[in-house]
Amino acid sequence: MSHQMIVVLDFGGQYNQLIARRVRECGVYCEVKPFSTPLEELKRMNPIGFIFTGGPNSVYLENAPHADPEIFRLGVPVLGICYGCQLMAYTLGGKVTAAQEDSAREYGKTETFFDTACPLFKGLPEKGVSWMSHGDYMEKVPEGFVLAAHSKACPNVAIADVKRGFYGVQYHPEVNHTENGVAMIRNFLYEVCGATGDWTMEDYKKTAIASIREKVGGGRVLLALSGGVDSSVCAALLAEAVGEQLTCVFVDHGLMRKNEGDEVETAFKPWAMHFVRVDARDRFLEKLAGVTEPERKRKIIGEEFIRVFEEEARKTGAVDFLAQGTIYPDVIESGAGDAAVIKSHHNVGGLPDYVDFKEIIEPLRLLFKDEVRQLGRELGLPEYLVSRQPFPGPGLAIRVIGDLTREKLDTLRDADAIYREEISAAGLAEGISQYFAVLTNTRSVGVMGDGRTYDYTLALRAVTTNDFMTADWARIPYDVLDRVSTRIVNEVVGINRVCYDVTSKPPATIEWE
Predict the structure, then answer these.
(1) CA-to-CA distance for 100 and 96, rounded, in angstroms?
(2) Residues with Cβ within 8 Å of residue 5, at least 6 apart in sequence
(3) Given 111, 260, 383, 398, which residue has the most CB atoms within 10 angstroms?
(4) Residues 410, 391, 486, CA angle at the centre, nearest 5°?
(5) How far is residue 180's CA from residue 77's CA, in Å, rounded to a whole number?
(6) Would you say 397 and 404 are in contact if contact means Cβ atoms under 8 Å apart?
(7) Measured between alpha carbons, how far is 383 from 10 in angstroms, rounded to an integer?
(8) Sign of the C-alpha dihedral, residues 438, 439, 442, 446?
(9) 158-161 vs 166-169, strand pairing mode
(10) pLDDT in tens, 239-267
(11) pLDDT tens digits, 112-145
(12) Whole-angstrom Cα distance, residue 483 to residue 479?
């Protein structure tokens, strides 16, 4: 079954896949393609519209990424976002320069005024907050364009050529910080591109299953099953696609939360799949001994995972494919194409150069976390698995700052368990997207039982988010934080101070490392 298609051209910004998520959220299928994709390939995709993403470059620099200008002669609507807006203006005869004054540069939440006669802002308020992130300025807009939005500092926050269906915004409508941003994207899709909304997660499931069957054929698949949402949904999808050809390997690396290894085994034993639990706790701790730099931790864990899977594959006979529950945020934050690396993920940027499998299968690679949960429900997974909190592949290795020891890991496990118990007891668990404890590498003086202590500081982290690309710190009531802190310093040996992280994403990431 064919679907209407939006092509998102990627110019290297960090929110690019989030744009794709917003388009799909509006019921329209889309694919992300590099800006360098040949025009003939784009034409074969028969898109009803293009979206140009943001990016870290300046369009007027010699090596800045540019799309084929013939795109603007295809008769297909284009929405340019941030860098994409400036590229459109630059390509079509406008002038873009570096802002000469600080007042012309805009970053963060900005009050913005919209012309609601413009199709992009149809039915929306005339004033709202938009999320800006640009240091360049459109000094001259191209012929045929009108100004459709402005701020106090910038007269051309949005431009429009309604006749040709070209629209540009200098802010990011895809992030939650922009009020009515998704509605603006929806207006572009439905009011400008003529979308009908023919894309659903049920369709994605059918397409993914068919694609897996075609790729695997009669081969065998080995899945890295962590027990988290991503790998659980991946397991269900693969099981439906290839059944007995799938073996799920759960590596107990000693970096999981309290009792989690046993819980994972209990949850998956009844499933109709080959389940193998590998005790690799000593092996991982030996490899990580003395390592303090988080990127090295991720690389070591990623390679050791692969080595364990290769060994298990040899034990189970010939295995052709390695499957992973990699999702879009993993790919984005590990860097792709011109995108900057925020942090590499053990199952993306952490993979070794040589992998002893025919191919790696990542059927969730195009999905964000909320889409993965939705797919899990489509596959009939129980809600307690689908709604489970995210847990990083490297586990507690990146929640213990500095070097790893068995004692530090046990300390963090006990403290984290108390934190989760109290959040649940307070009835806050469903309203917080992710919460966990971090054992810092900082020690401070304390007093316990009239004696001096010099123990570790524990940090508590909790965020609310819809997509895990942006996040706000959760406003946990003080009395709950007080109970958590009191219990931890009294019940967990080695911790005498508890802090709460009140930083949103951006500028921080959700995890500390």
Answers:
(1) 12
(2) 29, 30, 31, 45, 46, 47, 48
(3) 398
(4) 50
(5) 21
(6) yes
(7) 35
(8) positive
(9) antiparallel
(10) 899 988 999 888 899 999 998 888 878 77
(11) 999 999 999 999 999 999 987 656 778 889 999 9
(12) 6
Angle (deg, nearest 10), helices 229-242 and 369-378: 40
- Active-site position among 82, 118, 154, 234: 82
pLDDT score recorded for residue 135: 64
Catalytic residue list contains 177:
no
The answer to whether 17 and 32 are in contact (CB under 8 A) is yes
Cα separation of 406 and 394, whole Å? 15
Please enumerate in sequence order all residues whose Cβ is within 8 A of that of 235, keeping only pairs 6 or more positions apart, or say none.
223, 225, 246, 248, 268, 271, 273
The reported pLDDT for the residue numbered 340 is: 42
How many Cα neighbours within 13 Å face the side chain of 399? 26
Amino acid at 49: G
Asked if residue 39 has pLDDT above 50, the reply is yes
The owner of tokens 């907050």 is: 129
| 61: alpha, beta or left? (left if phi > 0; alpha if psi -120 to 50) | beta
Structure tokens at 353: 């150069």
DSSP 189: I
Q: What letter represents residue 125's amino acid?
A: P
Over its C-alpha atoms, the chain yields an Rg (Å, rounded) of 25
In the predicted model, what is the mean pLDDT of the chain? 87
Query: Token pair for residue 378?
Result: 């489509």
CB 213 within 8 A of CB 240: no
Cα 369 from Cα 228, distance rounded (Å): 11
Sequence-ordered alpha helix ranges (H) in 152-249: 181-187, 201-216, 229-242
Q: What is the Cα–Cα distance from 53 to 14, expressed in whole angstroms?
A: 9
The answer to whether 293 is a known catalytic residue is no
**How many C-alpha atoms does 267 have within 13 Å on its Cβ side?**
24
Give the pLDDT of residue 109. Answer: 81
Of 222, 211, 244, the C-alpha closest to 320 is 222
19, 51 in Cβ contact below 8 A?
yes
Alpha-carbon distance values, 23 to 18, 31, 80 (Å): 9, 10, 14
- For the stretch 235-239, contacts whose Cβ atoms lie closer than 8 Å and that sit 24 or more positions apart, written own/partner, are 235/268, 235/271, 235/273, 236/376, 236/379, 236/380, 236/381, 237/205, 237/208, 237/209, 237/212, 237/363, 237/364, 237/375, 237/379, 238/212, 238/323, 238/361, 238/363, 239/271, 239/272, 239/273
Given 25, 106, 174, 511, the catalytic residue: 174
**Which pair of structure tokens corresponds to residue 120?**
């992009």
Q: Strand 359-361 relative to strand 321-323: parallel, antiparallel, unpaired?
A: parallel
| CB neighbourhood size of 209 (10 A) | 17
Which residues fall within 8 angstroms of residue 422, CB to CB, at 6 or more apart?
480, 483, 484, 487
Please say if 26 is a catalytic residue.
no
